[in-house]
């Protein structure tokens, strides 16, 4: 079960969205530690007890984040930060 689940439409081609997701996963790994890998069209990241899956297709990007118990009280704040980040990530702002 995911604590945070977000789906957004995008206008990017599949190669561009995959490249952006890869850069994001690298940034998260560098900043928070942990690791990530591709599982088909999903980047799976694990760090500090949290697990995130970022998937995409030709029209949308989906983010599923499972938080460790210690971070669950901050779920709404984290979800808001992810939503705000997606605006720039997808070139909406």
Layout: helices, strands, pairs:
Blueprint: E1 4-9, H1 14-32, E2 35-39, E3 42-47, E4 50-56, E5 60-66, H2 75-89
Antiparallel strand pairs: 1-5, 2-3, 3-4, 4-5
Question: Could you name the key traits of this structure?
Answer:
alpha+beta, five-stranded antiparallel β-sheet, globular, TATA-Binding Protein, 93 residues
Written overview of the protein:
- There is one protein chain.
- The protein has 93 residues and is α+β, with helices and mostly antiparallel strands.
- It has a single domain (4-89), classed as TATA-Binding Protein (2-Layer Sandwich).
- Helix content is 37%, strand content 33%.
- The protein has two helices and five strands.
- The chain has helices at 14-32, 75-89, and strands at 4-9, 35-39, 42-47, 50-56, 60-66.
- It has a five-stranded antiparallel beta sheet, covered by helices on one side.
- A hairpin with a 2-residue loop joins strand 2 and strand 3.
- It is globular and about 35 Å long.
| Helix coverage percent | 25-40%
Q: What is the count of DSSP helices, taking H or I runs of 4+ residues?
A: 2
Low-confidence stretches: none
- What's the arrangement of strands in the largest beta sheet? 1-5-4-3-2
- Per CATH, the class reads Alpha Beta
Please indicate the percent range of residues in DSSP E strands (runs of 2 or more).
25-35%
CATH structural architecture: 2-Layer Sandwich
The chain-level structural class is alpha+beta
Largest sheet: 5 strands, antiparallel
Order of helices and strands: EHEEEEH
Query: What is the total domain count?
Result: 1
Cα radius of gyration in angstroms: 13 Å
**Extended strand count:** 5
Shape, please?
globular
Mean pLDDT: 88
Distance between the termini: 31 Å
């Amino acid at each position: 079960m995911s604590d945070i689940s977000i789906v957004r439409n995008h206008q990017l081609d599949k190669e561009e969205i995959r490249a952006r997701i890869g850069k994001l996963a690298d940034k998260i790994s560098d900043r928070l530690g942990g690791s990530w890998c591709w599982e088909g069209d999903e980047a799976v990241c694990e760090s500090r007890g949290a697990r995130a899956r970022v998937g995409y297709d030709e029209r949308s990007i989906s983010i599923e984040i499972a938080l460790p118990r210690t971070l669950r009280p901050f779920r709404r704040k984290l979800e808001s930060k992810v939503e705000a980040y997606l605006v720039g990530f997808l070139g909406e702002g």
